[in-house]
Amino acid sequence: MMKTSFGKMNTSITLQKMDPQIVAGGGRERAYVDIASVWAQVETQSNAATFHAGKPEYSTNVTFAVHYRKSFLKTRRIQMPGREFEVMSVLEPNMGRRSIIFNTREVQNTASSS
Question: Which one, of 15, 30, 32, 34, lies nearest residue 102 by Cα?
Answer without folding.
Answer: 15
